[in-house]
Amino acid sequence: MTATTVDAAELRRRTQELLAAHPPGTTDRLDFLRARFDAGLAWVHYPEGLGGLAAPRTLQAVVDAELEAAGAPDNDPRRIGIGLGMAAPTILGFGTDEQKQRFLRPLWTGEEVWCQLFSEPGAGSDLAALGTRAVREGEDWVVNGQKVWTSSAHVARWAILIARTDPDLPKHKGITYFLCDMTDPGVDVRPLRQVTGEAEFNEVFLTDVRIPDARRLGEIGDGWRVAQTTLNNERVAIGGMRIPREGGMIGPVAKTWRERTDLRTHDLHQRLLKLWVDSEVARLTGERLRQQMAMGQPGPEGAGMKLGFARLNQEISGLEVELLGEEGLLYEDWTMRRPELVDFTGRDAGYRYLRSKGNSIEGGTSEVLLNIVAERVLGLPSEPRTDKDVAWKDLAR
Questions:
Q1: Is 362 assigned a catalytic role?
Q2: Confidence at residue 1, expressed as pLDDT on a 0 to 100 scale
Q3: Pairing mode of beta strands 158-164, 114-117
Q4: What per-residue confidence (pLDDT) applies to 99?
Q5: Does residue 233 contact residue 301 with C-beta atoms inside 8 Å?
Q6: Per-residue model confidence (pLDDT) at position 240
Q7: pLDDT tens digits, one per residue of 116-151
Q8: What average pLDDT score do residues 36-51 get?
Q9: Helices and strands counted in the chain (H then E)
């Protein structure tokens, strides 16, 4: 079957067949999700046998609308966002046939949660400076190092991991990409309590963790190139989510403005109008980016979307706290928790204000993303990089 034979009508027919064979009201949720994947209706643009039908990406909306109307369960995409938005496209692009068959189905159904072992205490903004080492021993790699800011590590079964395999090469070379089993001996996950009071993030210590070479993704030493696929998709996943008008952070503020006339001032009204327009521009820009993605993998444009997402979230949440006055200083719960997902709109204004501070750090700092936009989107000259051709082992640390 080719993409040209799969149109909207064909997808509707296949979706109705799925619903008839597995009625949502009487079918176990996991059984339904597995059947949906096997029918090629999970992500229709993926190849046949891997949850798709090699159809245009834009036709996914046809399937989703039919299933939503029938009350079918989804795969709780917010809970498994790292797997869906980052691990899956990287495995699809660089994985072996065996890796694709093994990992993509339980990843999509949510049976196996994924996390990302990239950032380190000394390699965050300068990710290529990472020092976690992987040394080859026979058919295994022995990994030692520390990762930080790892979302969902406390619930993850698998991780996408980059480690240094050749310290004699410059920092962007000599890096290799692995799939790490988070239940293996030597993997130690510790909570990182944030300003919100929660430990949504973690630090992960890797001590003599053995990873079979069969779980290497891509060629030895080519990990930086493989990681670019992950990072580009991450930025789109963070900044390019599909939301309705007045969705996201602007929604609660607009709702409060309409319902609480006693809080209104002329100055707040002007600021709210500006942020409402900016939010709508960002939403429509995200739609355009998703249309571009339908033609191939995301590029550096995702960096611009993620930049806008961070700025808007911080400005909107600041306005909301100011609008609420004394009420905005309240905070619902400082209890130490380890949540499975981030819920911006389901919490109070204080949580949104505090949590949005991290938006300009996670997924690449705003400063780094500005460089990406300048160099790779606008074509401006690159900043001087004196360490570009220096062996990693000789870098000052």
A1: no
A2: 46
A3: parallel
A4: 98
A5: no
A6: 58
A7: 999 999 898 889 999 999 999 999 999 999 999 999
A8: 97
A9: 12, 8
C-alpha 199/C-alpha 358 separation (Å) is 13
What span, in angstroms and rounded, lies between the C-alpha atoms of 161 and 212?
13
User: Tokens 């040209």 correspond to what residue?
Assistant: 4
Cα–Cα distance measured from residue 66 to residue 7, given in angstroms and rounded to the nearest whole number? 14
Backbone angles phi, psi at 379, to 5 degrees: 75, 25
Global pTM reads: 0.89
- Give pLDDT tens digits for 259-276: 999 999 999 999 999 999
Chain centre to alpha carbon of residue 199: 18
Give the DSSP letter string of 259-298: H-GGG--HHHHHHHHHHHHHHHHHHHHHHHHHHHHTTSS-
- Name the CA dihedral angle for 54, 55, 57, 60, rounded to a multiple of 10 degrees: -120
Do the beta carbons of residue 100 and residue 43 sit within 8 Å? no
The residues, ordered by sequence, that sit 6+ positions from 331 with a Cβ below 8 Å of its Cβ are: 197, 348, 350, 351, 354
Helix (H, G, I), strand (E, B) or coil at 319: helix
Instruction: State whether residue 191 is helix, strand or coil.
Output: strand
Among 198, 234, 301, 320, which one carries the catalytic annotation?
Answer: 234
pLDDT bucket at 324, cuts 50 / 70 / 90: very high
CB atoms within 10 A of CB 215: 20
pLDDT at residue 3 in the model: 46
Distances (CA, A) of 371 to 105, 203, 237, 315, 363: 36, 27, 20, 22, 14
Looking at residue 307, its pLDDT comes to: 86
298 confidence band (pLDDT: 50, 70, 90): low
Q: Which of 13, 20, 11, 6 is CA-nearest to residue 55? A: 6
Structure tokens at 66: 């039919």
Using alpha carbons, list the distances in angstroms from residue 89 to 61, 147, 207, 281, 392. Answer: 19, 22, 28, 27, 29
C-alpha span between 278 and 239 (Å, rounded): 14
